[in-house]
């Protein structure tokens, strides 16, 4: 019984000893290595003998201290790298900044701009102030085979992004130009500009020019525009933006506060304008505004509203009628000059804008030296007021209707209140024509026909119609015919623009009594007395509302 009782105790004691030995062995296997060497066993094999010792409290403290030291070294190294990077960036920035303020950079920028624009570029006052680029003036002189003569930009300033500055490029959101002048070459009729295929050395998304001037170069004063005798002269406030639509970038110019003076035409004030430029030329142009005729008519409130539209591709002749003028309340004189001013005065398109009633003509710019105004061709619009100079035919009509006590045509120029015609002029005063003329006066008198002028001679055919009841009791002249209820008089127009004549003289002699002819005394006729004029009638009648 004693033996059986002692056996469990001895076995448990033996297991506890084994556990302690295993723990000691495990602890010793994780101990601190002292020494490591290669030994040869008796059988000739080589093994590595490692001598270790047990870990202690001091070992743990040493390892944590080494870890902290490693972290400190890493942080110090990282700070040094960051400082070096910041120093490199700052050095690169200062280098870029100082390099932009050198003559070498200005010279390189001039070369790059010359390659991109295809002309000689001169830059003055180039400087960098932080992220701001400034230049007092950029001047471009284009070659002789270009329709552009020169371009001058003054007061240039722009904000450059820090990233592009670090990369050595000039890019930003906006560039401001205090004044921009673009001059075309006098006498050059083809729309041709240098095609280089090179990109600009600077890129901005928006450009603004409070003062934009476009016109023709002055023949004597260098880098100035001809404001008086040039084909056209435009001033405006311009807002330019780039558009990514299409395969090539486009420049969209939004214009305001515009003044447009086209040679031979009145000054045009424009409320708004838009111009789209791309590699092929002017893709779209739209101007809208008015002509203020108050200076001529002493009526400041009377305006002629208009719109100019069109497109113009590279290689097109400037004389080509690529532009379309539409509007209302225009004068014939303002479009074609004085060829018919002594004979016919017309005011067109007073109605509200309507395709059937507004003036609509195509025109080309007067770039040729012999042109006094643009060449035009188109529809007159609705004629709302027209007057003709007194001709023998009007005297004939007055005589034929003299016995009508209700309605009589006076011995003066009638005023037509409706009608239309087609007009065409080459702008040289050597070829002006009005065709498909159709004018009506108070529903009683109608005129149709054609008029042509070459500046010295006036030719044409006009047909006058009046109701037959207006000539009751009067002999119809041999040259007149009756068509239904109308009496038709066909006359040929001759003479000069300043002194027009017609072929109604023989018919007038048939109708007008001898006593009523000029220079003869009055005599009773059919119970009525017709006094002879004491003084010749005026050669011209002025009607309010005409230029």
Secondary structure: elements and pairs:
Blueprint (H helix, E strand, L loop, with lengths): L1 H28 L2 E9 L5 E8 L3 H44 L2 H15 L2 E5 L2 E3 L2 E10 L6 E13 L1 H5 L3 E15 L17 E16 L7 E2 L5 E12 L6 E13 L5 E11 L2 E12 L1 H4 L5 E11 L9 E5 L2 E2 H5 L7 E5 L10 E6 L10 E5 L3 E6 L3 H9 L14 E2 L1 E8 L6 E10 L3 E9 L4 E10 L12 E4 L2 E11 L2 E4 L2 H7 L12 E2 L2 E2 L18
Parallel strand pairs: 7-8
Antiparallel strand pairs: 1-2, 3-5, 4-5, 5-6, 6-7, 8-9, 8-10, 10-11, 11-12, 12-13, 13-14, 14-15, 15-18, 16-17, 17-20, 18-19, 19-22, 20-21, 22-23, 23-24, 24-25, 25-27, 26-27, 27-28, 29-30
Summarize the structure.
The chain has 547 residues and is of the alpha+beta class. The chain has 8 helices and 30 strands.
Folded structure, characterized:
This protein is of the alpha+beta class and 547 residues long. It has eight helices and 30 strands. The chain has helices at residues 2-29, 57-100, 103-117, 162-166, 294-297, 332-336, 392-400, 505-511, and strands spanning 32-40, 46-53, 120-124, 127-129, 132-141, 148-160, 170-184, 202-217, 225-226, 232-243, 250-262, 268-278, 281-292, 303-313, 323-327, 330-331, 344-348, 359-364, 375-379, 383-388, 415-416, 418-425, 432-441, 445-453, 458-467, 480-483, 486-496, 499-502, 524-525, 528-529. The longest helix has 44 residues, at 57-100. Mean pLDDT is 77; it is low at 294-301 and 514-547.
Runs with pLDDT <50, length 5+? 294-301, 514-547
Output the radius of gyration.
48 Å
Largest sheet: 22 strands, mixed
Enumerate how many helices there are, as a single number: 8
Class computed from helices, strands and strand pairing = alpha+beta
Q: How would you sum up the global shape?
A: elongated
Classify the oligomer: single chain
Q: What is the distance, rounded to the nearest whole angstrom, between the alpha carbons of the first and last residues?
A: 151 Å
């Amino acid at each position: 019984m004693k033996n059986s009782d002692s056996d469990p105790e001895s076995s448990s004691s033996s297991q506890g000893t084994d556990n302690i030995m295993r723990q000691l062995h495990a602890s010793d296997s994780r101990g601190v290595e002292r020494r490591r060497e290669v030994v040869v066993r008796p059988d000739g094999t080589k093994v590595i003998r490692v001598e270790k010792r047990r870990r202690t409290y001091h070992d743990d403290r040493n390892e944590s201290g080494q870890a902290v030291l490693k972290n400190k070294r890493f942080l110090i190294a990282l700070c040094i790298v960051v400082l070096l990077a910041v120093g490199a960036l700052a050095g690169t920035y200062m280098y870029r900044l100082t390099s932009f303020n050198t003559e070498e950079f200005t010279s390189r920028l001039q070369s790059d701009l010359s390659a991109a624009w295809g002309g000689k570029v001169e830059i003055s006052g180039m400087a960098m102030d932080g992220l701001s680029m400034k230049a007092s003036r950029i001047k471009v002189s284009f070659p002789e085979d270009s329709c552009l003569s020169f371009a001058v930009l003054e007061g240039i300033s722009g904000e450059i992004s820090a990233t592009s500055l670090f990369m050595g490029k000039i890019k930003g959101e906006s560039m401001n130009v205090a004044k921009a002048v673009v001059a075309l070459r006098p006498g050059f009729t083809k729309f041709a500009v240098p095609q280089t295929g090179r990109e600009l050395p600077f890129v901005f998304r928006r450009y603004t020019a409070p003062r934009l001037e476009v016109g023709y170069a002055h023949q004597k004063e260098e880098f100035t525009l001809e404001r008086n005798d040039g084909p056209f002269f435009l001033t405006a406030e311009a807002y330019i933006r780039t558009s990514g639509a299409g395969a090539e970038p486009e420049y969209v110019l939004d214009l305001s506060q515009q003044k447009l003076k086209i040679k031979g035409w009145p000054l045009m004030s424009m409320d708004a304008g838009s111009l789209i430029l791309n590699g092929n030329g002017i893709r779209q142009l739209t101007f809208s505004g008015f002509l203020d005729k108050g200076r001529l008519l002493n009526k400041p409130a009377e305006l002629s509203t208009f719109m100019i539209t069109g497109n113009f591709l590279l290689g097109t002749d400037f004389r080509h009628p690529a532009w379309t003028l539409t509007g209302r309340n225009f004068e014939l004189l303002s479009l074609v000059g004085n060829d018919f001013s002594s004979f016919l005065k017309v005011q067109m398109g007073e109605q509200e804008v309507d395709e059937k009633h507004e003036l609509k003509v195509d025109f080309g710019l007067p770039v040729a030296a012999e042109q006094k105004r643009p060449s035009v061709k188109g529809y007159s619009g609705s004629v709302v007021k027209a007057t003709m100079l007194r001709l023998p035919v009007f005297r004939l009509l007055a005589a034929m209707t003299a016995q009508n006590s209700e309605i009589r045509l006076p011995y003066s120029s009638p005023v037509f209140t409706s009608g239309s015609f087609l007009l065409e002029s080459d702008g040289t005063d050597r070829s002006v024509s009005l065709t498909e003329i159709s004018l009506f006066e108070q529903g009683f008198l109608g005129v149709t026909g054609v008029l042509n002028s070459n500046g010295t001679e006036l030719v044409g055919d006009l047909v006058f119609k009046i109701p037959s009841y207006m000539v009751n009791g009067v002999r119809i002249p041999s040259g007149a015919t009756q068509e239904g209820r109308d009496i038709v008089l066909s006359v040929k127009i001759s003479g000069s623009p300043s002194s027009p004549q017609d072929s109604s003289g023989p018919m007038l002699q048939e109708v007008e009594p001898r006593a009523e002819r000029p220079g003869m005394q009055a005599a009773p006729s059919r119970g009525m007395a017709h006094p002879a004029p004491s003084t010749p009638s005026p050669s011209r009648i002025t009607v309010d509302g005409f230029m």
